[in-house]
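User: Type-1 angiotensin II receptor-associated protein-like. Structure?
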Amino acid sequence: MELPAVNLKAIVFTHWLLTVFACMIDWLPKAYGLANITILAMGVWAIAQRDSIDAIFMFLIGLLLTILTDILLFALYFTEAEKASESGPLRDLFRFSSGMGIFSLLLKPLSCFFMYHMYRERGGEYFVNLGFITLSRDRSSYQSIEHMDPPADQDNKLPSRTY
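Assistant: Predicted structure:
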């Protein structure tokens, strides 16, 4: 099964837009915006250097880490911010902002999946095997090197030394 072609620019732009929408109202700490914008800067680095394995790997690891930090920050700050904005004039804006933050969090694992495949296309060497899901390249067209024919020219072979 072939994966759909997903542009790295589209992934970075989507996460940037969702991060901006999530930070529209001041209900999350500055760590949320700082972490996500820093990771998106790594995404811009991965766009700028198309052949860099390090850039795409750092972006992938950063997205994985922001999944954890987003879960932690939402768990710590959501209920208090919801109670504070429940009867105020910013209730709808809080709902929109928190919805965009949650949507960004839900979209990050899919983005990580596409980032991993881009990493493998650029020459990355990490394999992931989850039992029923195997992420690897099809190498059936490669010739095996285990059964190579011996060279025909063995006259130039050096004699073995005895010590």
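Residues 53-85 form the longest helix (33 residues). DSSP finds four helices and two strands in the chain.
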